[in-house]
Amino acid sequence: MNREQKAATIDALAEQLASAQAVIALDFRGLDVAGTAELRARLRECETTLRVVKNSLAERAAAQAQIEGLGEVLAGPTALAFVTGDPATAAKAIAERARATQLLPFKGGLLSGQALSAEQLQALSRLPAREVLYGQLVGVVASPLNGLARTLSSLIGGLAVALSQVRDQRAAGGADEADAGAGEGGDESSAAGAEALEQPHAEQQEEDPQPTESKE
Fold this sequence. Notes:
Elements (H helix, E strand, L loop, with lengths): L2 H17 L2 E5 L6 H12 L3 E5 L2 H10 L14 E5 L3 H15 L4 E6 L2 E3 L1 H8 L4 H78 L9
Antiparallel strand pairs: 1-3, 1-4, 2-3, 4-5
């Protein structure tokens, strides 16, 4: 590789380092050509690019991109996985391949510019995928909202029933008052009729002269 080729490789690596969500460093010793091609194909499904580069070029690319924390893992044969998708999904794919081949141990890496150890990458590989986490988060948020909606619906339904009962009670009370008023009016009419009948009789008694006693 001549000087121009090295410069082009460093520029490409620096661009990948700057744009990646995560960078995972692997020890690829023992992995044959077919195994490397299979791993590359699997990582492409996770929006991840696997590159085997010289450590010196990777260090110069990290310095050019002003990225710290990568030099510590650049020792011995190293492959770099540049993750532009979900870091947990990419780490999981590498861990599954490592269990199947007993190869590809994590060496370390970067996540959002922060250095990760091999143990932290193992923990990352055991996390659910981003879509699963989003679904769980939506479920957690939606659960109290659904409970609130049910509570509000119950309260509104109870209020409607209470208002209906008040309306019925008021209607029943108005009917009772009307019946009572009609009864009182009937009593007053009967009393007035009796008084009218008694009044001519009293006037007739006043007009009839009392009989005079005869003198002996």
